[in-house]
Design a protein that fits this description.
The chain contains 5 helices and 5 strands, in the order βαααβββαβα. It has a single domain (2-129), classed as 3-Layer(aba) Sandwich (Aminopeptidase). It has a 5-stranded mixed beta sheet with strand order 1-2-3-4-5. The chain has helices spanning 7-12, 14-24, 32-44, 92-108, 121-129; strands at residues 2-4, 49-54, 60-70, 77-86, 113-116.
């Protein structure tokens, strides 16, 4: 089962959300405080959304953080997946059920598409299995 957290639930489960955000997005130590503060503020003000996948005993087994955004190029509204993290192995059929829920959420929010970014190879595979198409890769040179 997948649920969308309220701001009160985000505050209640912040330590769990924070852990998933850090390790799902592979947030480097020197950027963690800024990323965590900004994401917490966005979740509490409902500018971002947090979803939990629960097992039969209502234990959290995965989380996803999303944001509804507007494309600077096309002007289309879209759902941006900021973070996916699984606390234990989640089968493809479970991700597929989650994906249907997220797609329905995006549709109700009048989003034209769903985008995701990640530096985590495990997320690449999950998104590929769900039928996402890779659009580009980002490379960085440190100066």
């Amino acid at each position: 089962m997948i649920i969308k957290l309220t701001p009160v639930q985000v505050a209640e489960y912040w330590e769990l959300v924070k852990f998933g955000l850090i390790y799902g997005d592979l947030v480097p130590e020197d950027h963690r405080q800024v990323v965590l503060n900004e994401t917490l503020q966005a979740l509490l003000s409902e500018k971002a959304q947090c979803f939990f996948r629960l097992d039969a005993e209502h234990r959290v087994i995965a989380l996803m953080i999303t944001r509804i955004q507007i494309s600077k190029i096309s002007g289309d509204q879209f759902l941006f997946i900021q973070c996916i993290y699984s606390f234990r192995k989640v089968e493809n059929r479970e991700w597929e059920a989650d994906w249907k829920y997220i797609r329905d959420f995006a549709s109700v929010a009048k989003c034209a598409y769903i985008d995701a970014e990640s530096a985590n190879p495990a997320i690449f595979q999950i998104l590929k299995n769900l039928g996402a198409k890779e659009l580009y890769r980002t490379y960085r040179f440190k100066v």
